[in-house]
Amino acid sequence: MTPSPISRHSQIASQLEARFSPQAIATSRRRAARVRRYWTWRREVGGRAKRVLDIGVSAGLLVAGLPFFAALAVVIKADSSGPVLFRQTRIGRGGQPFGMWKFRSMHVDAERRRAELATQNESAGGVLFKMRHDPRVTRVGRFIRRASIDELPQLWNVLKGDMSLVGPRPPLAAEVKSYGQRELRRLDVVPGITCLWQISGRSDLSFPQQIELDLAYINRQTFKADVAILARTIPAVVTARGAY
Looking at beta carbons, which pairs linking 167-171 to residues 24 or more positions away fall under 8 Å? Predict the structure, then answer.
């Protein structure tokens, strides 16, 4: 026998009442709370594992690389006048400034000469400043920049906690001033030495493309993803694609 419309409506009403009863709502809330606790726990464990990896790798490389760093310091000093290391203020997590270290790859008057070269900026969008044949770069600087050797002192920043091995590259304060709400999300996480766009084309990518890859990393950040990016960084450095 076909149920009457009134009977069908009564059944639907009963189902809705059961579904949205105080007991059902309480059960749904408990399930949601368990899910939130699980993901909070997972982020905390992933964050601790990430920090352990940062400390272990950065400390190991700093100690093992001391003879190489010393030899490189001699070469840099012999090639051009000025300090071996270059310290630049960058913006880290939460908008906090910190001093980021590099091996000096430019002449000491590089910052002053940047204004003179502003019209020759090759970076799309004008937020970053990039030149494929930057006259401010020293002879040794060209080599260490292509091989990413100039970034190695940032292992000290990683050991201190200013940076991580993997994360969006830390921007200059002048760059942050031009950020919109979307770009500011880069500052939600600890900046890194390497990142998705560093292994996907580096300076060959436009600024909007870099932002897209950084946000993709932030949205799906995991310890496993960090290890995969680190593994892909080695061939990216060897091929030097987009490095200048």
Answer: 167/191, 167/192, 167/195, 167/217, 168/192, 168/195, 168/214, 168/217, 168/218, 169/195, 169/198, 170/90, 170/91, 170/92, 170/98, 170/100, 171/90, 171/91
Q: How far apart are CA 152 and CA 69, in angstroms?
A: 9
Confidence of residue 108 (pLDDT cuts 50, 70, 90): confident
Pairing state of beta strands 164-166 and 192-194? Answer: parallel
Query: Tens of pLDDT along 55-77?
Result: 999 999 999 999 999 999 999 99
Residue 12 three-state SS:
helix
Among 143, 60, 154, CA closest to 105: 143
Model-level pTM? Answer: 0.77
Encode pLDDT of 179-227 as tens digits: 999 999 999 999 999 999 988 877 778 888 999 999 999 998 899 999 9
Strands (E), 82-160: 85-91, 97-103
The answer to whether residues 93 and 188 touch, using CB atoms and an 8 Å cutoff, is: yes
- Work out the number of other CB atoms within 10 angstroms of the CB of residue 27: 11
Instruction: Give the largest CA-CA distance in the chain.
Output: 98
Compute the distance between CA of residue 190 and CA of residue 162 in angstroms, rounded to an integer. 7
From the CB of residue 175, how many other CB atoms can be counted at a distance below 10 Å? Answer: 17
Q: pLDDT class for 122, splitting at 50, 70, 90?
A: low
Average model confidence (pLDDT) across the chain: 84
